Amino acid sequence: MPSSPQAEVSDGYPTVQEEVARLSASPEVRSAFNWFRAQEPQLAHWQLEMARIAAPPFGEGVRAAWLVERFREVGLDDVRVDDVGNVFGIHPGYGRRYIALSAHIDTVFPGGTPLNIRQQGSRLYGPGVSDNGAGVTAMLAIAALLRSVRLRHALPFLFVGNVGEEGEGDLRGMRHIFATPRWKDSIAYSVILDGAGSDTVVAEALGSRRFEIIVRGPGGHSWSDFGAPNPIVVLARAIENFCQTPVSTAPKSTFNIGVIRGGTSVNSIPESASMRVDLRSTSTTELERLEHSLRVCLDQSLQQEQRLAEGRGSTQRKTHTVTTEVVVIGDRPAGELDPNARLLQVIRAVDAHLGNVAQVQRASTDANIPLSLGREAIAIGGGGSGGGAHTLQEWFDCTGREVGLKRILLTLLALAGAGE
């Protein structure tokens, strides 16, 4: 989840800070902090157990069933799975609106990926063990704590293990939640747990658009059908031209051609070729400009190849018709949290109280959906530290997890009106 630091979280908000300090000093919360420390072996067990269950894009069902059992085991109410596979559980309160604590349960790894999940000392190793094993484990820790330690709070907590955060999942789980009448207007705040760490606050949503571009032609033999239009050449020329497009640095924008496919043999003119393109920007206007440029470059390349093919001809006089198809495979909206939002004030006050230095960042997470709708949402880590995300060498270190859990708990209690 590459991101760019925007500002150090250090500004104090006295009223909120006083509330956070009051919460931390209460016997119940002190007991909760001790509980986190004592439960680390159980947390590591959950994390390893979940990581051993494959959850490829659009294949999260088995892991969702595992989470249903854990939600019931830790005493959540109304545990259920919705139409797209999101898992829900509720810890009751006294208000009508909810504080949502969520973590995505999917991984980037396709089905069949070797899952060599293991523990060595304080470190856990294997695909998905941190992203998002750390987030889901932190969510379970909070849910289990609420059953074990009596903490008064007004607003109820909604726990969600959502699907479809990674890659072509395109935030489908979170989209569904905020399109569902039961939840879209009843979630007051969204705290999203994504990966490890305690040093970030994602409060600014990085927008992205992703496309698969397919070019189809007549194909043929490299010798006898020479002159027929070549879909790979169309893509190559389009890429060359698109790479000349000016890219804004403020607002920051980027593009990437990440996958290209086509052809069957070295002596065959391919019948089709495709590429996948990723456009990102902090500005919707810039995204639209880059998309327009991409489409123009593709059209120009297609027209040029058709003209050249007609001029060259071919011995078999095959039709020179070439077609293109642009398929949208991802569209993540941009947005950002108001600097004066209560949620941002609370997380800043919590960090100040814990002596935790964090930075506000812009990134692409599940928070994109509520932020784009003008809702209060942040994405933060589940504590500890991690590395190698999206690789087979991924790791998570449990050291420091307790700070992350304290951070999450204090944030939830301050938002929910603890002790009221």
Write up this protein.
The protein has twelve helices and 20 strands. With 420 residues, it is α+β, with helices and mostly antiparallel strands. It is elongated and about 85 Å long. 46% of the residues are buried.
Please name the defining characteristics of this protein.
disordered N terminus, elongated, alpha+beta, 4-stranded mixed beta sheet, single chain, 420 residues, 6-stranded mixed beta sheet
- Mean pLDDT comes to 93
Task: Briefly note the structural class of the backbone.
Answer: alpha+beta
Termini separation (Å)? 37 Å
Poorly predicted ranges: 1-10
Question: Taking strands numbered 1, 2, ... along the chain, how are they ordered across the largest sheet?
Answer: 2-3-7-4-8-18
Q: Beta-strand level of the residues, as a percent range? A: 25-35%
Helix coverage percent of residues? 25-40%
Specify Rg, calculated over alpha carbons: 25 Å
Coarse shape? elongated
Total of DSSP H or I helical runs spanning 4+ residues: 12
* Overall number of strands: 20
**Sheet with the most strands, sense and barrel status:** 6 strands, mixed
List the helices and strands and how they pair.
Blueprint: E1 4-9, H1 14-25, H2 27-38, H3 40-51, H4 61-73, E2 77-81, E3 87-91, E4 98-104, E5 118-120, E6 123-125, H5 133-148, E7 157-162, H6 172-177, H7 181-184, E8 187-193, E9 200-205, E10 207-216, E11 220-221, H8 231-242, E12 253-262, E13 268-269, E14 272-281, H9 284-312, E15 323-332, E16 335-336, H10 342-354, E17 358-363, H11 368-372, E18 376-380, E19 385-387, E20 395-397, H12 401-416
Parallel strand pairs: 4-7, 4-8, 8-18, 9-17
Antiparallel strand pairs: 1-17, 2-3, 3-7, 5-6, 6-20, 9-16, 10-14, 10-15, 11-13, 12-14, 19-20
Helix pairs in contact: 1-10, 1-12, 3-5, 8-9, 10-12
